[in-house]
């Protein structure tokens, strides 16, 4: 029976730690929300700020890859002009059999 009570106390300790951490997480989330509200009150675009925070978490090469693919998709959908390396058009022999 000793093992059962030890396991029960260990489980209780884990649950209580998780509960404390969840409360801390909620408090931090509230603080972050307050900072965004303050920024919005000063005229900043919170949606863009959230994107910048997300981008800053990425490695530079990951961010560059993502931006390149995004530009490619936007170009394919006619949302932006073609990059300079597309300006010359297809190679002369391309598409001919």
Automatic annotation (TrEMBL):
One Pfam family in the UniProt entry: GapR_DNA-bd
Spans through the membrane: none
Entries under InterPro entries matching the protein: GapR-like, GapR-like_DNA-bd
Keyword Coiled coil found: yes
Coiled-coil stretches noted in the UniProt entry, renumbered to this chain: 4-38
Keyword Cell membrane: no
MF-aspect GO terms: DNA binding
Domain GapR-like DNA-binding per the UniProt entry, residue ranges: 7-78
Keywords, alphabetical: Coiled coil
Family: Belongs to the UPF0335 family.
NCBIfam families: PRK13694.1 (NF010247)
Protein name as it appears in the record: UPF0335 protein MXMO3_00752
Origin species: Maritalea myrionectae
Lineage, opening ranks: Bacteria, Pseudomonadati, Pseudomonadota, Alphaproteobacteria, Hyphomicrobiales
């Amino acid at each position: 029976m000793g093992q059962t009570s030890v396991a029960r106390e260990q489980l209780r300790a884990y649950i209580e730690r998780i509960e404390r951490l969840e409360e801390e997480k909620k408090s931090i989330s509230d603080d972050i929300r307050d900072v965004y509200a303050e920024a919005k009150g000063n005229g900043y675009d919170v949606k863009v700020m959230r994107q910048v925070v997300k981008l800053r978490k990425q490695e530079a090469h990951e961010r560059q890859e993502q931006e390149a693919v995004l530009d490619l998709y936007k170009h394919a959908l006619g949302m932006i002009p073609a990059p300079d390396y597309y300006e010359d058009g297809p190679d002369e022999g391309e598409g001919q059999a």
